[in-house]
Structure formats: structure tokens, C-alpha cells
Amino acid sequence: MTVNLVPRASRALDRAVELTGDSKTDTINRALQVYAVLEEAVSKGGEVVIRHSSGEQEVIRFV
Hints:
The protein is of the alpha+beta class. It contains two helices and two strands.
């Protein structure tokens, strides 16, 4: 399979690889699994919330 990434996605992939030390293939596989879980939660009326170390919460919206 070949994936053509827009520049923003390519930078995000590089950053994720840098943070995790995983290969690009492993990172893309994991990202797709996480995306499916998040989309399923949102499609069932849920929301995705990030709780920062400061205690602040941020709702993530997918476009």
C-alpha cells in the first residue's frame, strides 16, 4: 500500500516517530487503530477530551 501524505500529515508522522521511536509503519498502524476508536466514540454521541497535567481539559473535534 502506498500512502500520499499532505505536508502537515507528514510532519505529524515524523513527530510521532520521534516521540515514540516506532517505525513509520508501526506509527501509521497505531494511528489508524486509535482513529477508529475515537470515531466510534464520537459516532455514538461521545466526545474526546484531553486532560492536561495542569488539570485543564480540552475537547478534541474531528473535521
